[in-house]
Amino acid sequence: MIGLRCPFCGCEESKVIDSRPTDEGERIRRRRECVRCAKRFTTYEVIETVPVVVVKKDKSREVFDRDKLYNGMLRACEKRPVSAAALSAAVDDIEASLQNSLDREVTSTRIGELAMEKLREIDEVAYVRFASVYRQFKDIDTFREELMKLKQEKKAEH
The pTM is what? Predict the structure, then answer.
């Protein structure tokens, strides 16, 4: 391998003797041997993640915070039969969707829409709770309209 310098002699060639995952598969530990001086050293390989930046409604920007999304969805699921595993899987899906997108910036509106899609699949009451806060329902009519849309979608599915 060319590129990693031996910490003992500076040679750029080494061979991998052993590789194993560490940190629950987040990193790979590699034992290497320098081809010139035969001394051994360890390197770690990690996946480089490029942070997703969230563009908020006021145009300010912040790094995507998985915990913030999870906690917002968790509040909508309070006292509902939604498991932590189901909620965590939904957040995983949303995060993967954002990471797999070519866009490094995403609007908070898009994240809210993705969260509502997932909550609609998991629990309708949690979905309506989240939507009422997210969409800032102004009155009972707006709330009723959302419920009617949900009802129509359910009829169309059956």
Answer: 0.63
